[in-house]
Amino acid sequence: MSKRIADLLFPNIDKTPEFYENKYPAREGAGRVTRFAPSPTGFLHIGGLYTSLINRLIAKQSGGAFYLRIEDTDQKRLVENGVVDIITALKQFEVEFDEGPYDEVNEHGAYAPYRQSLRKEIYQAYAKQLVTDGKAYPCFCTEEDLQNIRAEQEKDGSGTLGYCGKWARCRDLTDEQIEAELSAGKPFVVRLRSEGEAGKMREFADGIHGAVSMPENILDIVITKQDGLPTYHFAHAIDDHLMHSTDIIRADEWLSSLPIHVQLFEMLGFNVPNYYHLSPIMKLDGTSRRKLSKRKDPEARVSFYRETGYPVKAVIDYLLTICSAKFEPWRAENPSADSLDFTLDLADTGVSGAMFDFDKLDNIAKNVIGAMTDDEIFAAVLAWATEFAPDFAAFINSDKDYFMRSIPIWHEKRLDIKKWSEVAQLYPYMYNKQYDTSACEMPERMADRKADAKEILEMYLASYDPAADSDAWFANVKSIAEQKGYCIKMGQYKKNPDAFPGSVADVSMFLRVAITGQANTPDLYKIIKLIGDEEAEKRIKNYIEKIK
RNA sequence: GGCCCGAUGGUCAAGAGGUUAAGACACCACCCUUUCACGGUGGUAUCCCGGGUUCAAUUCCCGGUCGGGUCACCA
Predict the structure, then answer these.
(1) Strand bridging mode A33-36 / A65-68
(2) Is A199 left (phi over 0), alpha (psi -120 to 50) or beta?
(3) A224, closest nucleotide (Cα–C1')
(4) Cβ A471 to strand B below 7 Å
(5) How many beta carbons lie within 10 A of that of residue A111, not counting itself?
(6) Whole-number Å distance, CA A258 to C1' B74?
(7) CA–CA separation, A298 vs A377, rounded Å?
(8) Phi and psi (nearest 5°) for A137?
(9) Torsions phi, psi of A224, nearest 5?
(10) Which residues pair with A283 in a beta bridge?
């Protein structure tokens, strides 16, 4: 192989690897350099958020750098606005970059460009050098050729599969043959001339799995595709070298290509970075577990959490909880600390792939919301509703004071809400001023006491004192109970329920259902004071009507 | 199928050659209580299977089973 062939293959490439080595010098400082490198193929997956969060954490806690690199070498899969979608989604979850694209065209950072489609000449300069050095060669095999090779290999039964050894037909083409193919205008890919030895095992270091023993790569993998763009493997080696990534933290699915990547780094003369392969987030599907699927599982999309209104902090905390068992105790000791201040040791990361657990997320979310102030909640609910529930937003805006006053009713000393979509849904009697309770049924145990219900509600209306405070109000409820012969001491009632026609709890329940339409609510007195005496009275009257 | 990774309650998991095998979520009971929620107390439930090493194995080793990943000119 020769310089001449290399020139023929890449006639327009005049830069050498040395040029780029000089252009992109090593970074200052000893911090760790990490990156998130997604393909802009649509929405952000929860696993992508997970990975980026961890990368961000590692860079930040070491005083290093974290950058975004767009892997857009597959022209077929590109999606319009794919880059902006990713950046926006990440930003919504507080993942920000030190370097990388801002939007579809602009970017910042000393190692630009950060879009692989813009780095074509860089990859080609290295590919050209590899060809010159005899470490790579052009391959003219068609898809059909490849299929035939595969078919023969399967028949042959030797167990080898793929473009390698004697099957690699273009590996030993002479310069003359190559020139002939080229002048015939045949398209080509460039393949690495693998130096791996068949069957030879080797240990590869992984910061999460430890030493992983795998066979050396013997495949002559494609490094440059027919369209001149690099494959993932090649771009990874070139970019992470030139951008000086120190730690490659990525999804588990890459573990099996580690031999290829290490080989690439070594043949290119690069230092091999530290690798960490993160376990995927799983889903329990019936009795089997599988990876969260974009198509089947709404929770796979990061946008799902915003739409349903989980607080961003809850999602972040949940992801970190999955990531390291040390996070929860840390959070317990530092309840209000920024999640990014957690010091993560990748060695503590689980190796088996956590099942996504909504119960746990909900629990974290409840506590996050519980710790918020009423003002913060007001802002968060309004922001959520404005984007995802315009009717509810209009309601809030129509009477901000009313909504503000309602928050402590369900927030004070309570953990009722896990996500903002539950607010209007859980308390229709507060947030729907035309709410009609008359169709709502009493709990089953009280359903046959219609006469009592009617009478009690009428007694209540007759004795209602708008000026009464909470205690006086409840004293009145008790007195109604007493007049009806209902037990007013719950302890006593529970010991001997058959001795009474009912209890104060039942009286309260008649009122609760008449006023709210529900059997379970926060403090009734507060609700009445929020919706107003008149509204409460109106609902009770309607309810009495219905009882007939 | 080849190669790789993994397996501790329902879920997330700590853990060490000898432990009453942590903790969190969920669940259940009780207390508190006008419902629910909150809070409190207590509870049910786990080391995948078979060999080997050892005085001793859930822990180390080897098999198996099961689950996951990967075998592209996709990333």
Answers:
(1) parallel
(2) left
(3) B73
(4) no
(5) 21
(6) 17
(7) 25
(8) -150, 155
(9) -130, 125
(10) A290
Question: pLDDT tens per residue, chain A (548 residues)?
Answer: 589 999 999 999 999 999 999 999 999 988 999 999 999 988 899 999 999 999 999 999 999 999 999 999 998 888 999 999 999 999 999 999 999 999 999 999 999 999 999 999 999 999 999 999 999 999 999 999 999 998 888 887 777 789 998 899 999 999 999 999 999 999 999 999 999 998 899 999 999 999 999 999 999 999 999 999 999 999 999 999 999 999 999 999 999 999 999 999 999 999 999 999 999 898 887 767 788 888 888 999 999 999 999 999 999 999 999 999 999 999 999 999 999 999 999 999 988 888 899 999 999 999 999 999 999 999 999 999 999 999 999 999 999 999 999 999 999 999 999 999 999 999 999 999 889 998 888 888 888 888 899 999 999 999 999 999 999 999 999 999 999 999 999 988 988 888 889 999 999 999 999 999 999 999 999 999 999 999 999 999 999 998 86
Q: How many angstroms separate the CA atoms of A168 and A166, rounded?
A: 5
A307 CB-to-strand B distance under 7 Å: no
Q: How far apart are CA A251 and CA A444, in angstroms?
A: 52
Protein-proximal nucleotides of chain B (any atom < 7 Å from a CB): 1-8, 10-14, 22-26, 32-39, 67-75
Query: Which nucleotide C1' is nearest A227 CA?
Result: B73
- Residues A526, A449 contacting (CB under 8 angstroms): no
Interatomic separation, CA of residue A309 and C1' of nucleotide B11, rounded (Å): 23
Closest nucleotide to A72, Cα to C1'? B75
- Amino acid, single-letter form, for residue A46: I
Answer yes or no: is A321 CB < 7 A from strand B. Answer: yes
User: Which nucleotide minimizes the distance between its C1' and the CA of A116?
Assistant: B75
Answer whether any strand B atom is within 7 A of the Cβ of A290: yes
Q: Which of A81, A14, A89, A98 is nearest to A49 (CA)?
A: A89
- The interface predicted TM-score of the complex, written ipTM, equals 0.95
Q: Would the Cβ of A231 be found within 7 angstroms of any atom in strand B?
A: yes
Residue A240 approaches strand B within 7 Å at CB: no
Nearest DNA or RNA nucleotide to A187 (CA to C1'): B73
CA–C1' A356–B51 (A): 36
Here the tokens at position A187 are 């398209």
* Protein CA at A335 to nucleotide C1' at B15, angstroms: 26
Look up residue A223 and give its two tokens.
């490094």
What is the 8-class DSSP label of residue A57? H
Quote the radius of gyration of chain A (alpha carbons, Å).
Answer: 33
For residue A477, give the nucleotide whose C1' atom is nearest its CA. Answer: B34
Contacts of residue A127, Cβ cutoff 8 Å, sequence gap at least 6: A9, A10, A136, A190, A223, A224, A230, A234
